[in-house]
Design goal:
Rossmann fold; 21% strand; Dihydrodipicolinate Reductase, domain 2; alpha/beta; nine-stranded mixed sheet; globular; 36% helix; five-stranded parallel sheet; 12 helices
């Protein structure tokens, strides 16, 4: 694989590299890690990439790798949002597979265009909604699919962070800076950064697409342009109601992602900070706590664990499951890497962001999501 972005100071670049290489199915061999030549060379040395495969920009990288008999087969896109479309499109059109950070693109129009490019390319496109890689998230999805809870009635998903409670972007913080800049992040701030994760998780586990939403978004910190706090009511196909809360000004919040799904006969709950457990509360039976790595779990959940129950796995391993899904699909020649999210999830995520931002701004109340599932 090759990587675009992820140079020194990046949080997500090293995560991609560790996750991709964890199972021995990918190896990082090339990259355009930074526009700064010194930082680009520094990243290459740190990751044992040959100096002649540390390219000055992604176009040179794609051309250079395409000319090699041992060139990269997949490009990991780990840049700010505004570059996702052009890098992914160039890689796909050159015959390379893509693994991209979310959201898929800067806006919905780009996402729709990218979907067409993916279809025409015949190559795989993976989107790193990492939480879909956790074993107990996959177990929750299987329980809903089997009908264990009966018809789904309500879904509540919350993602609470507090790291942007102060205007860090005004003090030169790199990670806060691009997320608060519409030119780099798009029309959504918090809703694009972590709200898309919550939205994706609700559809991934719940099994039904969101059809309508009612959004209240705000930029709470003075001087901030993009939203940093989001409250969205949801209505799903099939009749379930939902609530989505995403916030980056919840002071004291670390990475507080949790989801509850309620059906006719019981409900389940998953919390990222206790991610090896899945709690199931039955209407007329004792509650259960299911544990990752256990033999009684479904095949999708068991295959997502590498070690026995009681030995915790985490964020890198969940990320690695998505890379493993894509690697297996490439080897098998499959058109999708399910259950790893693909371009369809990317298009829906961007539709969610744009509809929610516009509905909140206009005080429109309930609006249709308006994008095919």
């Amino acid at each position: 694989m090759a990587m675009v972005g992820g140079g020194p100071g990046s949080f997500i670049g090293p995560v991609h590299r560790m996750a991709a290489e964890l199972d021995g199915k990918f190896r990082l061999v090339a990259g355009a890690f930074s526009r700064d030549a010194g930082r680009n060379a520094q990243a290459a040395r740190a990751w044992d990439v040959a100096s002649d495969r540390a390219y000055g920009d992604y176009r040179a990288m794609i051309a250079g790798e395409a000319a090699r008999h041992d060139g990269a087969q997949l490009v990991a896109v780990v840049t700010p949002n505004h570059l996702h479309f052009e890098v992914a499109a160039a890689a796909l059109q050159a015959g390379l597979h893509v693994m991209s950070d979310k959201p898929a693109t800067l806006n919905l129009a780009e996402a729709r265009a990218l979907a067409g490019i993916v279809a025409a390319s015949g190559r795989l496109y993976g989107l790193t909604h990492v939480y879909t890689g956790y074993p107990m998230v996959r177990e929750a999805r299987e329980m809903v699919r089997r009908g264990d809870l009966g018809r789904i009635r309500k879904i509540v998903v919350e993602y609470a962070q507090g790291w942007l409670s102060r205007p860090l972007e005004q003090g030169g913080d790199k990670q806060a800076g691009w997320r608060a800049d519409p030119a780099q992040a798009g029309v959504g701030g918090c809703i694009g950064d972590i709200g898309t994760h919550a939205f994706n998780l609700a559809e991934f586990i719940g099994g039904a697409p969101v059809e309508r939403l009612c959004a209240d978004l705000a930029a709470v910190v003075p001087g901030r342009v993009l939203d940093d706090d989001c409250n969205v009511l949801l209505r799903f196909a099939g009749g379930a109601r939902g609530v989505l809360i995403a916030s980056q000004i919840s002071a004291g919040g670390r990475n507080g992602l949790n989801i509850k799904v309620y059906g006719e006969t019981g409900g389940l709950a998953w919390n990222h900070e206790r991610h090896t457990e899945l709690t199931v509360d039955w209407l007329d039976a004792p509650s259960q706590v299911l544990h990752a790595g256990s033999a009684y779990l479904s095949a999708p959940a068991r295959s997502a664990s590498r070690i026995p129950a009681g030995h915790p796995e985490g964020f890198i391993e969940a990320f690695a499951n998505l890379y493993s899904d894509v690697a297996d699909a490439i080897v098998a020649g499959r058109a999708t890497a399910d259950p790893a999210p693909g371009i369809a999830a990317g298009v829906r995520g961007m539709a969610f962001v744009e509809r929610a931002v516009a509905a909140s701004r206009d005080g429109a109340g309930w609006v249709a999501l308006g994008e095919a599932a």
